[in-house]
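Lab notebook page, bench 4
Experiment: in silico fold of construct C2
Operator: M.H.
Input chain length: 157 residues
Purpose: comparison with the prior construct
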Amino acid sequence: MEMGVTGTASDVYVKCEGCGASRPMSDAFDTSLVLSQPSILPPCRGRHPHLLNYCDNECDKPAKSILLGASNSWFPLTIPVLSLPPDDAGRLSQLVHDHWVVFDKIETKDNLAFSRRIGLLKDFSDFSDDEIWTEIEKKRDQQDQGDGSENTDLKNA
């Protein structure tokens, strides 16, 4: 094998040690050349070493050149994503959940009002103390009942 300047298929040459003939690797990827000169590629043997798959029977199809690269081009990672913008009730529920370390210690609505006065509830400016307190109580009830509704799996819902 001989390398050119860039390392692209047209700059990589395969050379026969026996007769000294050489060809660029790009010939193996030129479908018109491969179809017109079937001897460019060996016959398909039904092997897929990149997939660790070896067929017992020989394949009768013509061989195809493939360029192997990063494994993620063969085995991509797919992650389904569903994003639903929260309504105000959902937003408040999420905010209470995110600040639960603070809200877990608040025992009365007066403590909540005091927390607002000293600036601990800046993220809750769109909500009244009554709305926040109702959400806190709802979260406490869920925890007491062991209701895992806050961890709803949308994929299986």
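Observations: The CA atoms of residues 72 and 85 lie 31 Å apart. The chain has a mean pLDDT of 78.
Next step: discuss at group meeting.
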